[in-house]
C-alpha cells in the first residue's frame, strides 16, 4: 500500500470515528402510516450492482428489523433511520456488548462493524443499504445474511456532507459461513 492509500485509509478511519461519536438518536417506534415509501437504491458502478427487486417481491410485507447497537454510536442511528425511510419497521436493542450477539448470529471473523441486525432470519452486519437487504430477502437462497465490514464513507448512516461515496462491497454470507461479493456501491 503506498503513502497515498495510507493517507486515504487514515482519513476514512478518522471520519468513521467522528461519525460514530455523534450524539445517538433515541430509538422510537414508527407507525405504519408514517413510514416513507421505499426509495430506489442508488445506482452502483459495478457488475455487482444490485438487480432491481421484482414488483411482486417489493409488494411483499417486509420483516421487522431488530438492531443491536451501542448507545454511544450515532452512525448506527443514521442506519436505523435509513431502514425506516425504506419501509422497514425497526426495533433497537441498546447494548455495550455486541460480541456475544455477533457470535450467536454467525458474523464471520474480520467482517464486523458497529451494529448487527436481525432481518427475517438473516444477519445484517454494518451499514448495508436497504435495497441490498430487500434483494437478498427476495432471493431466499439459503444465505445467512449480508455483511459490510467497517464503516465506509457514504454508506447508509455514514453519509458525507459533500455526498461522496467511498467504493465499498457488501458481501453475502453463505450457508457455509464463507463470504462472496454481493453488491458494490460508490465511485
Describe the structure.
With 187 residues, the chain is α/β, with parallel strands linked by helices. Helix content is 28%, strand content 19%. It has 5 helices and 7 strands; from the N terminus they run ααβαβαββαβββ. It has a 7-stranded mixed sheet with strand order 2-1-3-4-5-6-7, sandwiched between helices. It is globular and about 40 Å long. The relative contact order is 0.18.
List keywords for this structure.
single chain, 187 residues, alpha/beta, seven-stranded mixed β-sheet, 5 helices, 28% helix, 19% strand, disordered N terminus
Task: Summarize the entry for a quick read.
With about 190 residues, the protein is α/β, with parallel strands linked by helices. The protein has helices spanning about 5-20, 55-60, 75-85, 100-105, 130-140; strands at about 65-70, 90-95, 115-120, 120-125, 145, 170-175, 180-185. Strands 2-1-3-4-5-6-7 form a 7-stranded mixed sheet, with helices on both faces.
Tell me the layout of helices and strands.
Elements: H1 3-20, H2 55-59, E1 65-69, H3 74-85, E2 90-94, H4 99-105, E3 115-119, E4 122-125, H5 130-139, E5 145-147, E6 168-173, E7 179-185
Radius of gyration: 16 Å
Q: What share of residues is helical?
A: 25-40%
Beta-strand content: 15-25%
Mean pLDDT: 78
E-strand count: 7
How far apart are the termini? 19 Å
Q: State the low-pLDDT regions, or none.
A: 1-54
- C-alpha geometry: globular
Q: Describe the main β-sheet briefly.
A: 7 strands, mixed
Kindly report the spatial arrangement of strands forming the biggest sheet: 2-1-3-4-5-6-7
Count of alpha/pi helices = 5
Provide the succession of SSEs. HHEHEHEEHEEE
Structural category:
alpha/beta
Amino acid at each position: 500500500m503506498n503513502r497515498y492509500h495510507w493517507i486515504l485509509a487514515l482519513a476514512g478511519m478518522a471520519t468513521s470515528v467522528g461519525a460514530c461519536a455523534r450524539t445517538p438518536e433515541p430509538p422510537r417506534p414508527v407507525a405504519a402510516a408514517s413510514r416513507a415509501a421505499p426509495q430506489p437504491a442508488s445506482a452502483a458502478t459495478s457488475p455487482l450492482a444490485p438487480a432491481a427487486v421484482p414488483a411482486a417481491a417489493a409488494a411483499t410485507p417486509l420483516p421487522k428489523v431488530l438492531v443491536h447497537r451501542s448507545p454511544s454510536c450515532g452512525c448506527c442511528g443514521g442506519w436505523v433511520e435509513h431502514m425506516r425511510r425504506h419501509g422497514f419497521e425497526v426495533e433497537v436493542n441498546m447494548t455495550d456488548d455486541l460480541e456475544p450477539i455477533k457470535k450467536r448470529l454467525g458474523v464471520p471473523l474480520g467482517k464486523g462493524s458497529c451494529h448487527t441486525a436481525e432481518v427475517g432470519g438473516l444477519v445484517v452486519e454494518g451499514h448495508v443499504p436497504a435495497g441490498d437487504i430487500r434483494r437478498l430477502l427476495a432471493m431466499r437462497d439459503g444465505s445467512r445474511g449480508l455483511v459490510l465490514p467497517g464503516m465506509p464513507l457514504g454508506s447508509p448512516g455514514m453519509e458525507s456532507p459533500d455526498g461522496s461515496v467511498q467504493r465499498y462491497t457488501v458481501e453475502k454470507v453463505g450457508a457455509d459461513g464463507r463470504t462472496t461479493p454481493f453488491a458494490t456501491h460508490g465511485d
